[in-house]
User: Fold these one by one.
Assistant:
Number 1:
Amino acid sequence: MILRSANCKAIAVFAILLPAAAWADQSGTVTLATNSYLNLNTGAASAAGGDILWTGVELLPQGRAGLYNLGRYGARAFKSIQARHASSARFSSAPIPAGTLVPGDVFGVRTNSGHFVKLLVTAAASGSLSLQYTIFSNASSPAIVSAIGPLVTEIQNNYSYILPGLPNYGIAPGSIFVIIGSGLSTSDPPVLQSSGAPGLPKTLNQTSVSVTVNGVTTTPALYYTSANQLAAVLPSTTPIGAGTLSVTYNNQTSGAVPIQVVPSAIGLDTLYGTGNGAGVATDNNGNVFSLTNSAMPGQTVILWGSGIGADTSNNDTTYPQTQNNLTNVPLQVFIGGISANIVYRGRSQYPGLDQINVTIPSNVTPGCYVSVVAQSGSVVSNAVTLPVSPNGGPCSDPAIGLNGGTLQALANKANGSANSLAVLVNQVVEASGKISSSGFALAAVLNSSDYGKGYEYASQGSCTIVPPGQGSFTNLAQNPLDAGAIQMTGPNGQLSLAEQGIGFYESDLPTALSSAPGTYTFTASGGANIGGFKVSVNVQSPLSITNRSALAAINRSQGTTLTWSGGFPNGDVQFEGAVGNQLGTVRFYCHAPSSAGQITVPPSILLALPAGGGTLDITNTTAVQSISAPGLDLGLAGGAVIFGLDTTFK
């Protein structure tokens, strides 16, 4: 049995143990249907609960929330509103009528947790209301918070951040979990408590937590407290089932909120602390695998996280823990979609912190973002990725034509930004049969860290899941680059790509791309940010889907397989699916070379999706061509044909 020794490099225990959900200003967009609620701590719309209710006739504050309508001042005024302005707004319980909520209207919300939010109406039609919002993390009403005492708004696994209401949600006994809300403790910065004797405290900074399930009450030990977030270890003696949780601070106790305790619900740690993308995995010496330090097929690696399940031989409070191989917990780990041999599954030497020692299958398809998913019964973990290379060292990702050294160099750029460009000639075949073809280019500044995160992506041979609210990319529209005029020459002649705004160019092709195979050449004159370039893409016949009827309904517990014939030579196939519920859209993403002829999406991926009507996208892309130009850090070009299908996830 391979265990982590006490004198290993502690893997920066602070980073691995507590990748706390950082409270930063959160911005987003949402569309509310008639009679839907909006939770402005998370930005999630739902059928019940929340801070505001849209009835189709008026917008109503809920509970202690308040509204303040500024008026139709538009996007410029919305952008200029800062957190400091919130304190002067006259929030009230009065509703805002639908006639006022027209595009350009700006209003504010004081949430039930005492935070302030600015919102802009972007569309209002047929009973729906589309909003842009920013939740100010550092602006709150101390008077409101003091008056209402502790308020709990979310309970999540410390690593997966899976939302309540999703099929793979749950808190396992013995796991580290976070409680999010307001007025939970002092406003002092969180301080990680030591699990050395006498162990983690059950009361910290006048804060304690109580959990009751099936008539049994347990008191979780606390790793840290703050006004907006606590981290605790659910005792292994907590029964399984639906229960309640409450927080007491300064002799005030919150209302009881639901907690769902399940036998096992694993959350895998991620390098960026988001629950998605690059995972935290180490070798036996505590070295973290990275884009330039890949794991190898056949190597045993250690995955870190929490939620394997109860271990009553430990007290969940004290270091060092007894390291028991919890073989009684049914567990599988899939690496690149292949079941991997588990050497050890159980606690590390820290309360609630689990390690899974697993051997990478020898036949896994290497890549920079090989998927890793754990499954216990029908409950699957969050999906993370791991770089795998036959000889270790830098990974290689043939689908994007980049290696780990290049990706890491982009991620580490000193100024934190990367000038990026993509050009594409493409065709979209919608589920209705409608076909549209165009050429387009997108030039924008990306946060350089986006190249290391691995969000919403998996290497060839792998699949991943993207839950709502996880992962975050740069808003390209806010950071465009000028590449000058761009011409595209193809079998049907020359076409000028129309500039739709700085950094975005697109024009329709005169005929369908599939009817005009050949070489398409993009030529740019160069602009204020990116110099001139020329690149050619060869587009021949895309794939043909051979099992379309089998994809009309997908049984999540059985998995599904996409099959095709043909495809772009040396090209790539991406298989994506999406289904939404009140929390937002959950998506899967799978990847294979054109030559594979099929992609199998296993139950370990599909079980993270809720049931319901959804969509599928099958994209066949050509081999990627690189673009070099002055002022450009990374440029890629290709051709693509996208097929859209409707489906039902059962």
Note: Residues 199 and 318 are 4 Å apart (CA to CA).
Number 2:
Amino acid sequence: MSSYLKHDEWNIIEEGFHPEKSRDSESLFSIGNGHMGQRANFEEKYSGNTLQGHYIAGIYYPDKTRVGWWKNGYPEYFAKVINAPSWIGIDIKIDGDHLDLATCKILDFNRTLNMKQSVIERSFTVEMPSGVQVRVKSTRFVSIVEHELGLIRYSIIPVNKSANLEILPYIDADVENEDSNYGEKFWEKTEGSCYHHEAYIATKTKKLDFHICTGMLFDIFAGGSKLSTKAHLVEEDLLLGNKVLFNATAGEEIVVYKYAAVVSSLDYPATNLMQIARKKLQDANEKGFQTILNDHIKEWARKWEHSDIVIEGDVAAQQGIRFNILQLNQTYTGKDARLNIGPKGFTGEKYGGSTYWDTEAYCLPFFMATAGEKVAKNLLIYRYNHLQKAIENAQKLGFTNGAALYPMVTMNGEECHNEWEITFEEIHRNGAIAYAVYSYIRSTGNEAYLADKGLEVLLGIARFWAQRVNYSETKKKYVMLGVTGPNEYENNSNNNWYTNTIATWCLDYTQRLWRL
């Protein structure tokens, strides 16, 4: 774990504010629930170095490929999980000045990611230009139980004297991907509604026609009592919210409870998203922040019961392995066979949130051992559902008769990676997918999966290997030329040991299963 963070068995802890590490912290303290994820951006305004990021699994954008020259089989696009409209915003003004950690005098700062609970907490004290000192504490999570909900408890206490507060909870659809190839924004607004203590923005992608609705509902409490203060509606084109003004006395705790819902056309009719989001928020508000948090904590306790690894005598190693386990479980829950595991999870834009061979090579064994047969099976079904696309990928390179080349990078089964040495030479990925079928059968004994789906995948991959080799008269053996091995650094190699071994194993295994 990074040296500016404190070693702890169950927490990632930043003591003191490190603005030079802001983007690192936003990634390391990120949260997710398999359906969506949120970088550890601040709720209040921050004018320092930041990468705003909220991501929804399964919703992506085919960003047109940017490449110097084209080669046979190059994909038209690189698929990217989109930075979706932000739901976390709570702008604060104190005596007319923005609460902004890039400009305020910071007296103390602590940020903690509780890995046992997948909850991020942040507390700090600042001195404003007016001389008032303010203590702030925020608690945020995305529910692992009700996966379309994100919740925030945001507390403000004027410490040394009274202060005039302006609180603006909002949702913001004016977002962009930093890795956009042509500086294009990927969303367009279709509808927006603003009510007392509520706001909703419906958006659609400019390509592929994904629709989402992002909604928020909030309450404000002062000294433990709910305020009925009239809210001023804020209705800008891409930002909707409510502004509340009042005076807070010294020592009085002001608490904002913000409920957010993100629903999409992956799961509901596009025409009903706003009504569905509003119903979910009303139900969540009725349950209350603490009830939803308690349910979330209980479900995470069940996950840790089956997936924890205990390392005694080395706190740094214990923290590191639990961080990896947390990220795997935050990224993928196995509830939806349409989804997969992005190499960076929901922590940022790197690798576009796409599916790589890492899933079968590294992740599937973890989920098979900790999450049960159904979760592992859904990862296999994901590849089965993409078999026809894998066959089409191989056809583009001249392979025939049902030979299948699974993509290096994908969202829908179509190859969208455009580096020749990786896309067309790093073909051992086919073997990892075949081996995943073998591992699943060996672990579960579920041979019915072979007859139903698994053998079709294995046959497609075996046909690819059979056509990819050629016979060497000199060696009197079959050879496989021009590949990149799994280390990715030795391109255009002949007879890479790993690739040859996984190919011959796959051919042998498939023949045995065919006879069976």
Note: The CA atoms of residues 217 and 440 lie 44 Å apart.
Number 3:
Amino acid sequence: MKAPYSWLTEWVKIPWGAPELGTRLTMAGIEMEALTLAAPPFSGVVVAEILAAEPHPQADKLRVCRVSTGSGPPLQIVCGASNARAGLKSALASVGAHLPGDLAIKAAKLWGVESQGMLASAKELGLAEASSGILELPPDAPLGRSLREYLDLDEAVLDLNVTPNRGDVLSILGVAREVAALAGTKVTGPGIARASAGHAERFPVKLEAPAACPRFAGCILRGVDNRAAVPLWMRERLRRAGVRSISPVVDVTNYVMLELGQPMHAYDLRKLKGGIRVRLARDGEHVMLLDGKTIEAQSDMLLITDAERAVGLAGVMGGLHTAVSAETSDVFLESAYFAPNAVLGRARRLGLQTDASQRFERGVDFALQGRAIERAIALLAPIAGGTAGPIEVTDSAAHLPKRPPVTLRRKQLGRLLGASLPDDRVQHTLEGLEMQTTPRADGWEVTPPSYRFDIAIEADLIEEVARIVGFEAIPEADALEPQRFRPLPEERPAEESMLAVLAQRGYQEAITYAFVDPALQERLFPDRPALALSNPIASDLSVMRVSLWPGLLRAALENQHRQQDRIRLFEHGTRFQIDGASTREIDTLAAVVSGARLPEQWGVPKEMRGAADFYDAKSDLEALFTATGQAESFKFEAGSHSALHTGRAARVLRCGREVGWIGELHPILVQALDFTYPPVLFELDVDSALAVKRPAYQEISRFPQVRRDLAVVVDESVTLSTLAERVTLAASNLLRGLRIFDVYRGPGLEHGRKSVALGLIFQDISRTLTDDDVERIMASVVADLREKLNARIRE
């Protein structure tokens, strides 16, 4: 919502400048995202008048103009605009002027004719995205005056981020109400008088879906000149609020929408057949909208129809067949109230987002429709003339929203705020928000105004008091009640310590959306069904994630595109797994590793900074497993995964149960996503993978350890974890440690075999082990390895 400062001052007296106003609105819950000027910087542009415009002797499309600035001799300007004509006042950028885009104006010769400046268009001045000619100013524009001063182009424009529950603030009037409440003043605004009807014609309206449209106001205007020039002040206000000027009728309806918050629509009366009917669509019914697209309406969509066809999608966009044009002289103005539930999501379902739908979805003041038409007539008559008939309001009182009173208890207000406020201050604050208050013994009975759809319960009123009084005005106080902390289950790891392990190893935490690109997720997990969003914010964020990998890969790509050559990202979040008819949320930890193994540094040789691989990420995982206190319970088992490189992927097992995956991204995906280095990914189910075994007391032996080294030759297919598992099972409980200190392949060994050197450490808690004890255990280990793994002892 863009609110020009001068427009606000028409409705309320503002005791602060624009920056201070933005800060106060932000503290009151209406965030100011930006504070900009009404136009980009430019200098040296003044109001000038074209005294004469003659054809260029050497170029048919150019004209040689004599231009006066009100002082000094006229200037000769060569201009190619089709609207350059004698008597027109326009914007002259004289020699030495600087325009947006670093354009400096210099004297020049165009086809042999000297030009002493440039007559500027709105686009060249940054006042429009496109323009068909030079800027046209009113006849009373003062010659020689700086254009920035004349049009007040240094005016501040507040860009406000309005929360979804505050649809009433999507208007100048709504913002003015907030300012009045904060400043303790009253909303005044321009007077809107009910004009007397110039004729008695009425257009019939029938509400066939009164629950969806309980009120519809209309008025017939005849003799409108829709070719008339829209005043510069209105065009400028619309532009500063982010709306393009089109024609008198359309501009006035847009102006009223921005000013009062009531969307309006204008029909060419001659194109309407019979009366207006507001009804739900029939399946398969088609409507051609103003943007030229034909949509197929669904049965829950509300349509505006005449006797022959649908002429608009209610609350979203009007139809093309009955749109006003330059030839339109008779207009039917519409100002309706559509229930939010009847409009919510319909526009987005069709790939549309309009100013009207944005307001109707959040709730429009249901008492505003007649007033909006009165304001539109008052604005349009001086511009385009015409005669207005009576304003006809068709409504269904039983279906209009109700505003039941809400009880505010003094005790509850003090409990939630943590401070006691005087009764008169509370009542003054609520009345400043145009709420009706009735004092009671324990507090107040408060009736919200018709435009406040967000006030329904006591907590809403307490929030209103807090934000208007000011959070900074509420004193800090220690809680009077004891704090009770829920116990952390013994086996559940503390999140801070779990994430600190990865942070200490060079990772940075990422937070990505829980909804992801369906195309990317389908490529990573083609066999996993995903939960689709019924109302996504974007087409590439339309399904819930079945893994944290899609978001992390997108984040890694964004970093790579910004010249980051070493990426370590992790995320702790929820993924969503569909189990039959239900969806299960799984607490998950995932990470992506890409780029150099070590940071660039003079003490690290270049060959040691190669790209990180599977084993670098595996070592990070093992650091996490060590923190569980049961590192020996984990095992990596080669496996096949749709997203990972075959032969460079492994299941992560804990006590034989799958708890995660690790591996290098599949080469096809690396190429498709345009990664410089193949990323390595891992993902764990937090509850099962990182459950902690708390340390327990164990007596330390006073007796010496005994170590025996053993070199065994096994098949290449035998993994080190399998070998260690067999040794542990075959040895007695006297085995205190097992170290693998060498792996050899080469001369002296059969093809497809490898030699593994093991260090076995034995110790007893009650005595010193003898050589016989140790030899007996070693013999048992050797026998088991020969039988189970086809191993032989290497001498």
Note: Residues 198 and 452 are 35 Å apart (CA to CA).
Number 4:
Amino acid sequence: MGPTVTGPYADGMSPPPPRPMRDLPPPPGVTRVEGGVELCVYAGHADTVDVCLFDAGDREGGSERRIPLTERAHGFWFGHLRGVTPGQRYAVRASGPWQPENGLRYNESKLLLDPYARAIEGGVRVAPPAFGHQVGVELAGDTGLRDHRDSKAYVPRCVVVDERFDWEGDAPPHRSLAESVVYEVHVKNLTQQLSGIPDHLRGTYAGLAHPVTLEHLTRLGVTAVELLPVHAFTCEPEVLRRGLTNHWGYNTLGFFAPHAAYASASDPQGVLDEFKGMVKLLHRAGLEVILDVVYNHTAEQSATGMTLSWRGLDNRAYYRLDDRGHDIDVTGCGNTVDLRHPVVCRLVLDSLRYWVEECHVDGFRFDLAVALARGRYDDYDMNHPFLVALRTDPVLSRVKNIAEPWDLGIHGWRTGQFPPPFSEWNDRFRDGVRSFWLAGLGRDREDRQGHGVQDLATRLAGSQDLFGMRDRGPIASVNFVAAHDGFTTRDLTTYDVKHNEANLEGNRDGSDNNLSWNHGVEGPTADPDIESARHRSIRNLLGTLLTSTGVPMINAGDEFGRTQGGNNNPFCQDNETSWFAWDLAPWQQDLLETTRFLIRLRATLPVLRQRTFASGRLVRQDGSTDIAWYDRAGQPMNQAVWTDPSVRTLAMYLDGAELGERSVLVLVHGGANPAQVTLPTPPGLTAYELLWDSAWERPQPPEVVDPTTEPVEVAAASMRVYRAAVQLP
């Protein structure tokens, strides 16, 4: 049964209940009130807006009942729907001018999603009626001609849900960035093939929070999961034409609704409750939840794409357009959401607050964040209203906010240029560490000029060249060597070039600048020496990541050497290419133990987790400084050594005096041959403990080393971590 239709107001509309300041619209979206709900949507240039109610299970739309919204203020259309309760399926239609040259594309034949919908049911059926303009069977046509076919059988429905949930006293872990280790992971990939999880929970929110998954995450030692997009999304038509699907989710359909396909529950209310239950159980295990959010573009793509929500409500408000009504695309996805418009800026801020306040998430990673902060003249603006609003918001300013500091527009690379308290993905760390341990090592083995140590030292110490301004500190740097986008860490050591043929784009997609090295053979090999060298390189990459100052982020699966077969862009591979294989070989078990050990080591050595930059300042009366750099002979580095590209050995000494902790020495040797290295002997130091050597296939007990006797021999392409065993006050 639908809502009751009574009173003098047409089609179920009833007088709004008394409320103060009725000249202002209610909050956008659905608000539950006595006797029903209020619905409010923004359609600033529309002539009419109708609410469309549907019975549950009606995919074709035969039960549609249209109710006009008769109240309007400041571009918002709103009204009271008597009798509407949780479970009601709905959408909207908007009529108005069809003026593509002015950016207006109203079409009342197209059913539209409420941008504030908390739940979305059903998928998009890609066919000509789903487009606002006229297209043929090949989905190409004239974007200037309005299409009058009804889209209701081809698009999803919004669903009214009950926001109440028993959080059982849930308390976010509130991990400091200095102690954080982030684990970037796809909801489905992690558990789709994980034994011990019931089949019906694999690849779901519930599977991610299952005790078997939690055991892996907590034993690993990470402090936060950063989930690839979980906002409701759909697939691009061109990907479907190749017989593939959008697997990563960077194609948003709704900014408030969790993606239903990731839930084991089948009803919309159950999807939302399952997501909240996942967050609650992850918190209970001490893990924070960070969402990868895509506010820079939507699934509607360019004007040649479908009309699903925002375009049909107010194309000119929601998207960046030029003077001819064409999309300005700095995202590579066809459109760019325009956060210069106050309604759009509010939409994003409301969405973020919803996920924090109602779903208890702990932070966000902003995809293509530069696109969110392009100002009036399309230049990046550090003081963009959205960034100011987010930084000053009493809720959002207190969670973790991480920028992907680039987009595809002009001057789009902005690493280090976001304001505090933002942290940023540090691509310079990624490239510098790969260059030293892989590309540089390959050149060194061939007696060609390698990659020196100067840039690596900067990355080890927290990238002060990028994040030293505005008192940001090294916690502004999210360090990583691999992420979802690109080679896995194992594939960095196995392939010189990408192998993306399965994506059916002629191997043209994905980056060609991987800074990888296959160690002499492209792809898998049975040569034990090459395999051993590859495994050591993986340990070097992870060891550098976890001993560097900053916030480390691990690409999920790298802890045990996951491979994607050389595919560095598997966004469309919802199969074994992306799903984790948990039947680990002995060397993978060794690597997993090594990664666990390195994360524990980081947690027990405070000098590796500092919130401020080490600057060479005095910390002891004997002249010791907070950080010191030494060469292969155990002598302080000089300018000639720093700038010599053939130098492949470096020791970083972090003094623990200010923290009341023992000091740590990180020794890196990127040469293709073993080397004799003299360990430095700062004042007061009499011995070291060797805590870890990347030449070890598996962690070993500490070894006491006397640095005053003779040099130590380090293996080719390896690194070590020492702790000062004895040091005078």
Note: Residues 1-12 have pLDDT under 50 and may be disordered.
